Amino acid sequence: MDKFGQFMLALIFVAINMLYGGWILSILWRWIIVPQFGLRQLLLGEAILVRLFVSYLKGFGKIEKTDSDVLKKLTQGFCYNVAWGAFILALAWIVIKCS
Question: Where are the domains of the chain?
């Protein structure tokens, strides 16, 4: 894949990852923070901004600049984030239903 294709794929991965992470954060916020602290629900846009802010504070990982490595690491990171988000949602749902 050429450089432009990799760049566009990276942008798509980042956009989907931000939307997915914001969606998960808004659900977890609604399940945990709203009942415990009485705060209002987060809209999807607000959840995405909170996620971006936390990502900024946490720092970003480094990706080595080799042509074959970049696409592989982006795909692995994307799949990891999707699986981790689903796991956290499932775990939170179980804890809420059991308590």
Answer: 3-98
The amino acid occupying position 91 is: L
- Look up the pTM and report it: 0.80
Where helices occur in 29-66 by DSSP H, the ranges are 34-37, 44-58
* 11 three-state secondary structure: helix
Cβ pair 25, 50 in contact under 8 A: yes
Name the nearest CA neighbour of 51 among 93, 79, 16: 16
Please write the tens of the pLDDT for every residue from 27-84: 999 999 999 999 999 999 999 999 989 888 887 666 556 556 777 887 888 899 899 9
